[in-house]
Amino acid sequence: MLVNSPAGYEFSFADWGNVLLHGLSLDFSMSGYLMVFPALMLIASIWFKPEIVGKILNVYFLIVLSLVAIIGVVDIILYPYWGFHFDSSVFLYLKNPKGALASASVWEMVIGVVAMVGIVAILYIGYVFAIGRQVKALSVPKRIGATCVVLLLLTAALFLPIRGGVTVSTMNVGKAYFSDNMFLNHAAINPQFNLMYSFSKSEDFGNQYQFFDKQEAGRIFAELNNQPPCDSIPQLLTTNRPNIILFMLESFSADVALNPQIAPNLCRMAGQGVLFSNFYANSFRTDRGLVSILSGYPGHPTVAIMKYPQKTQKLPTITKTLKDNGYELSFHYGGDADFANMRSYFVGACGISNITEDEEFPLAQRLTKWGVPDEHLLDRLYSDLTTTQQDKPFMATVLTLSSHEPFDVSTKKFGEPFLNSIAYTDSCIGVFMDKLKATDLWSNTLVVFVADHAMQSYPKGAESNSPHRFHIPLVWAGGAVKQPLVVSDYGSQNDLAATLLSQLKIGHKEFIFSKDMMNPLADKFAFYSYVNGFSMTDRAGTIVYDNDKGGILKITGNKDMMDKKAKAFFQTMYSDLGSR
After folding, report:
1. What's the CA gap between 289 and 77, in Å, rounded?
2. Taken in order 479, 291, 563, 572, is the CA torsion positive or negative?
3. Which residues fall within 8 angstroms of residue 31, CB to CB, at 6 or more apart?
4. Residue 278: enclosing H or E segment and its boundaries?
């Protein structure tokens, strides 16, 4: 913050305090990792001479403190040039060391080396006097067994700071995110933890899955996603600045979500609003699905971009685009917003600082493993929307969770737990929509229902790569919908961004993987990826390609055409991921 603060930005005392406070969890976690070896050596000191243990720890701390200093200083020097923390992706550039260090001046490198040496010296002297002397003073305890048990328990307790507690989410970089100002989020991140965390995520994505040379892949992709200007795009809404409530429904497969016996309320809204009947999830996990929906960015089968805050912050998002057009934003979730690095995405990429999560609810309402049941979540959403003065149009983004395994819901109508969970969430949605309809907000509000992904384990027997496993509902409802309509053209989650923004008369060129499903001149298809494979489907046919096999598993329609389109789309996904 002292060295790299944005030009003209003055930090308040609250900024300093929030950075330190929100960064503590990562600091504790990194400290926990670094304490494991000393803790084990402390146990060993029960049987070995303190001099031996002391010498081993001297070497260990010299190495560790040197690494801490080097990472910290290099991080400070490189940050203004790279725009993100020193992480494992930097090592991809070390194939060309000259280029990797080209941004830093000679003076910066000299000052950096001096700073490293100085920091190591200060830290090591502190270690010698504060810890080293105590190690030398150790003696054999009178009760060896009891001492050993106590030390083992204390060592095991390091699990808590390392993991970040005992909640569902594990420690990740997103834990430190708290602000609309990305620099403050970055300042809160522990640089040593960030580097360690990134090693498990690092791959050279841009050179994976190269089916064609880059120019040929780019040409095919450009033709595939071409969206010629058109003055005959059907208008689905009564206004181009409606309030928007986006429901991302956990695991809502189309075959159950559009079954009137299971989900009568969603079916009723599909009949009264706009139903996209051939709509597909891009992937099979929530972390991919959220990015596909909000950024128009298809999910990759081998990696989730949400795990890379330095990449997600460069993605366009529906929310940030609407924020730039005067919308107020919020995110409501009954679970832990740190799960799967979601917070870093919603705060950093989506521009949402108003986040409601499990800790915002009374303890008595946190009734399930994942957090707060959907009925309490939607009650809170309704209260927030109707008790807040709405001076601007708003977009409220909602992620449900009751239809997530283990399907712990009060509804017991069906013999299948998953169906009970869908029925339960559907009933909660029905109550919410009926209450909303009685308010003044209704006439100018668009409510969008879309699944984050389909349920992969129901029904039993369907293949994991089958289009049936990825077919999900997309329903537009609310008073801002002009008239009932069924859109039968094919599309997938990545197409929601362009389709919605087009209806709002807002440009969407930066959403390069998203197409307007209502544009009659655009190529209509759905694309999804499963575990190390991908598929494309449209009215003409379907192709399912398996990367492990290195070949086509299924094909209907024009084989050459489908094969070429699907591969070019998939290759472009990874090339784009590698370039961010």
Report:
1. 35
2. positive
3. 161
4. strand 274-280
pLDDT at site 202? 63
- Give long-range contacts, CB 8 A cutoff, 24+ apart: 18-24: 18/178, 18/179, 18/184, 18/188, 19/184, 19/187, 19/188, 20/188, 22/175, 22/176, 22/177, 22/178, 22/188, 23/176, 23/187, 23/188, 23/189, 23/190
Please check whether residues 413 and 501 belong to one and the same domain.
Answer: yes
pLDDT, residue 457, reads 74
User: Per the domain annotation, does 281 fall within a domain?
Assistant: yes
Q: Tell me the C-alpha to C-alpha distance, in Å, between residue 33 and each of 3, 40, 127, 164, 196.
A: 28, 12, 17, 12, 10
Number of domains comprising the chain: 2
Residue type, 215: Q
CB-count burial class (<10 Å; 0-12, 13-18, 19+) for 350 = buried
Residue type, 150: V
pLDDT tens across 263-292, in order?
999 999 999 999 999 999 999 999 999 999
Rounded Cα gap, residues 338 and 340, in angstroms:
6
CB atoms within 10 A of CB 160: 13
Residue 398 has a pLDDT of 98
- What's the number of CA atoms in the CB half-sphere (13 Å) around residue 303? 18
Q: Are 546 and 532 in contact, with CB atoms under 8 Å apart?
A: yes
- Beta bridge partners, 449, equal 247, 475
CA distance 386 to 134: 61
Whether 483 is covered by a domain: the verdict is: yes
**Distances in whole angstroms, Cα of residue 41 to Cα of each of 36, 55, 61, 162, 185:** 9, 11, 12, 19, 36
Partners of 533 in the β-ladder: 530, 546
Phi, psi angles (nearest 5°) of residue 3: -90, -40
Verdict on whether the full-model pTM lies above 0.90: no
Residue 125: CB atoms within 10 A of its CB come to 11
For the segment 158-194, what is each residue's pLDDT rounded down to a tens digit? Answer: 999 999 887 777 888 888 888 878 788 889 999 999 8
What integer pLDDT is reported at residue 473 of this predicted model? 98
Is 223 within the bounds of a domain?
A: no
Kindly tell me the burial class for residue 99, based on how many C-beta atoms sit within 10 Å of its own C-beta (0-12, 13-18, 19 or more).
exposed
Q: Which residues of the chain have pLDDT under 50?
A: 99
List Cβ<8 Å contacts ≥24 apart for 4-13: 4/76, 4/79, 4/80, 4/183, 5/183, 6/183, 9/183
In whole angstroms, what separates CA 506 from the centre of its chain? 25
**Looking at the structure, do residues 327 and 463 belong to the same domain, yes or no?**
yes
Instruction: Give the Cα-Cα-Cα angle 525, 531, 533 (nearest 5 degrees).
Output: 50
Does 363 lie in the same domain as 267?
yes
Per the structure, the complete domain to which residue 500 belongs is given by: 242-525
For residues 391 and 467, state if they share a domain: yes
475 and 353 belong to one structural domain: yes
Q: Do 168 and 302 reside in the same domain of the chain? A: no
Residue 68 lies inside a defined structural domain of this protein: yes
The Cα–Cα gap between 27 and 162 comes to: 9
Q: Of 525, 542, 559, at which residue does a domain stop?
A: 525
Q: How many CB atoms lie within 10 A of CB 534?
A: 26
C-alpha span between 332 and 398 (Å, rounded):
5
